[in-house]
Structure formats: C-alpha cells, structure tokens
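Table S2 (text version). Query chain:
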Amino acid sequence: MDISVVIPLLNEEESLQELYSWIAKVMQSNSYDYEVLFIDDGSTDTSWNVIEELSKKHTEVKGIRFQKNYGKSQALDAGFEAANGDVIITMDADLQDNPDEIPELFDLITKENYDLISGWKKKRYDSVIAKNLPSKLFNAAARKTSGLKLHDFNCGLKAYKNIVIKTVKVSGEMHRYIPVLAKNEGFTKIGEKVVQHQARKYGETKFGMNRFVNGFLDLITISFLSKFGKRPMHFFGLWGSMVFAVGFLAAAYIGFMKLYKLSTGLKTILITDNPWLYISLTAMIIGTQLFLAGFIGELLIKTKSNEKHYTIKETLNT
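Corresponding structure-token output:
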C-alpha cells in the first residue's frame, strides 16, 4: 500500500465527508493505493456515525473509536499502529490542512528518501495574539533546544516513512515533538515543506492558550529525556554523588576541626550548635535522594512495558 492517511479528530462531524471526498479525489487522480484512518478521540457529536457511513461506502476508510477523550498523541499512536502504508500522512480533520499537498509530501519521502517531512504553515489565518505570536516563540524555543531547524513543530500535516512511525512511540502530549522523537531514534533526514494553511470552515478550535504552556513544559521534558531518558543514572547519579560528597566532606571537616580544637585546648562549641553541620547533613540527604532517583529510574526503564494508555471502544475495517 502506498499511503496511509491518519486523521485524529474530536467533534468534527461537519467536515469529515468533505475531507474524505477531497482526499479520495487527490488519491485517485494520482493512482495511489491508499487507506484513510479516522481516529475518533471520544467525540460527543455524530462524528463516529459519519465515519461508519463512509466505511460502508468506501473500503479505504477505516476507523478507531476511543472509549473517551485521551488526547491527540494517543490518537496518533493508535493510528500509527494500525497504518499499513509505505508512507504515512497525518493531518487534522478541520479542513485547515490541504490534501492537495499529499503528492509532493509522498515524493519527498519516496524519491528524495526523507525519513520525515514536517509541514510549515508560513502564512496563517489564525489570530496574531492568540496563536501566531505564541506559536513563533514556542517554535523558536523548540529549535534551540532540539537542534532541528523546523519552523512549525506543531503543524498537523506531516509525512513519515513507515519505519519511523513504527519506531516512535507517542504518549502524553508529545505529538508536537514527533520530529524530535524521531531524531532521538536515529532518523536524521528530517525536512520541512511550506504548506497551505486554510481558515477553519466548521466548528471551533479544540486548543486554547494553555497548549502553549503545556508545550513549553513538554519541551523541557523531552529535552531531558533526549539526553538522559535511557540513562537517568547519568544525570541523577552524577549530581547525587557530587552533592553527597560535598556534604560528607563538610561534615568530616567539622568533625576534624572539633577534635583538633579539643586536642589543642582551643575554645570550641558543640557540634550540634554549628549550623554548618545541618547544611552538610541536608546535602548528604539530598545527594542520597538524587542517587536513588536515578537508580529507580534505571529500574523502571528496565522493567517498563509497552502498555497502551488508551482504551479502544470499537474499530472499522482495521
């Protein structure tokens, strides 16, 4: 199969029929062998009914329905697991992503051998204050932290080699950072393509300003995980050992000076009256805790399972 189109959605009943018709037109005009996977992330409208009707009429349409709303990352992860195409295209269901971009994205993956192509909505139709400015700040921070020179990490329109989506595991709210996750897994040929951004035609956005706050917090998390995610002892163990050593040496010095003054008849105070004793003991306790955090992190990595953090209610044609 040439292409799998993975579309996560939440309450997009009005746009689904039009979106599929548009995708099908592009696919058929280019003679692609394709499938379209709609991932219903707990919609409360009639989105699933629309998907059911589409699947009855078109064998290319497949659906996965979550028991409740788990989030876009979990929806993408479920879609990636079910996808069979050599190239996987992701796009949003709100018609802001243009299916006419698919052929060029497909060619970049198959002919130019890119591992991943991320869309760049260079000209946007969103509010400047509510979305454009925060998005620019967020992307600048992501570029600086990750080392990837992408302008739009959060663009829903992306193309992947099959091996990339089968390797990368998306959880939490890490869908924004799939290019970074792919880079961390050794897929280094990552590029971007300017894509057309269209004004929302139906419904309203599902994301508020809090997504940028969450985005920056996730950026800190993934920055740490990219460096120490598979070896937490290298971070916590190192700092724990250093802090413990400083505290231990300070306590030893306090004890030595106490004995020295007693042996030479110099005036001294009780060790328990010395505030530096408590500072050194606190340093040793913190150092021990950091070391144990690294040790426990290593144990968790060794014993973690590939448990899914979502429940699928039903599927169509998958």
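Notes on Table S2: The domain at 3-228 is CATH 3.90.550.10 (Spore Coat Polysaccharide Biosynthesis Protein SpsA; Chain A). The mean pLDDT is 87.
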